[in-house]
Amino acid sequence: MKALCWYGSGDVRVDSVPDPVIEDPKDAIVQITSTAICGSDLHLYDGYMPTMEKGDVLGHENMGRVVEVGSEIKNLKPGDRVVVPFNISCGECFFCRNELFSLCDRSNPNAEMAKKAMGHSPAGLFGYSHLMGGFSGGQAEYLRVPYADVGPLKLRNDGLPDEMLLFLSDIFPTGYMAAENCQITEGDTVAVWGCGPVGQFAIKSARMMGAGRVLAIDNVPERLELACSNDLCETINFDEQDVHECLMELTGGRGPDSCIDAVGCEAHAGGTLDGTLDVIKTSTFLATDRPHVLRQAIMACRKGGTVSIPGVYIGFGDNIPIGAAMNKGLTIKQGKTHTHKYMRPLLEKIERGDIDPSFVVTHEMPLDDAPEAYEMFKNKEDNCIKVILKP
Ligand code: NAD
Ligand code: ZN
Prior knowledge:
28% of the residues lie in helices and 21% in strands. It is an alpha/beta fold. Residues 38-40, 42-43, 170-171, 174, 193-199, 217-220, 223, 238, 262-264, 267-268, 270, 292-293, 310-312, 336-337 line the site of nicotinamide-adenine-dinucleotide. Nicotinamide-adenine-dinucleotide binds at residues 38-40, 42-43, 170-171, 174, 193-199, 217-220, 223, 238, 262-264, 267-268, 270, 292-293, 310-312, 336-337.
């Protein structure tokens, strides 16, 4: 089959690879109808994520049709239309039973490697390095889905189009959990760093949860504009304005009640000293991450407020102002999304017409053009915000 394979920093290629097969009675094979490129894929594309190997198939935002099921599968049959969550979860361990699906204890076959790096192993992920299980992703014609009775969300065959449903696999639940982690009360002011797809869903979700004001921060005009199309959203362009000063001005010196870091480990410096040092350190292998936004969020957040981190961090954060976080009594909540928990309730919101997730889509392209799509998405060319690939 055709698949998008990783070969190194800035080098992805459409290759011919063996078709996936059922390897375990709890597997299903899904023929992909739509798959998206995520900001998380850029961390692989830019070489930030360790334990990638040449030829690894990328793609963790996937949907399609079931074509084959293992002998123990009860909930799916060939022909079923499904959205597949990006994390792989057994459904039975302590963490899955507590709806902490991204922390599944059983789904990472390389758990020992992850334990050395993190103390414990999180769940396996599709197309996201050997540290996260070495599973092939779905930027391909077919995908092997382990624990297929647990993850995939079954959809009506004659229902809504793919572009309204695909983002249940990751970015809609991710933005939603990021807002939920803010513990928003009616009228709160929420600041969101990053107006990429995750930031956009965090903004919409914060509003659904009762935020009175949303302050959105980025430097990409069309992304700020899209955020602005929410009438309650005020924007800050970090190339033109001092973010901390602006946030203080907009909140009468108190700071936002909650701050969401929807940027993660590859934050741009925006002319700041700490951000510039991050860029120098990561490019000379003296640091793993560029946590400029996290520093800014901790410093700006109001006393007793919440910092929510959906943005991906990989290794160690240099100079995180943990003293400010402690002395201001901040709550910090973070993590990979427990996608399974959110898929059905958010599908219901889409079906009710509360939200149409396709608002972030700017490009739909054939899988063959995936290398160009990665470049375009990374560089924000052609006003690119979110790309759907069609195998
Ligand atoms: P994206 O790369 O499209 O968006 C990131 C945005 O941040 C860009 O618009 C960029 O201009 C902006 N940005 C860069 N530096 C900034 C700064 N200093 N201040 C403000 N904005 C800045 O990516 P995305 O798809 O929206 O994903 C965002 C983050 O969420 C990534 O780190 C991604 O890995 C992560 N993510 C996490 C989960 C999870 O489970 N927690 C799931 C999906 C994505
Ligand atoms: Zn993703």
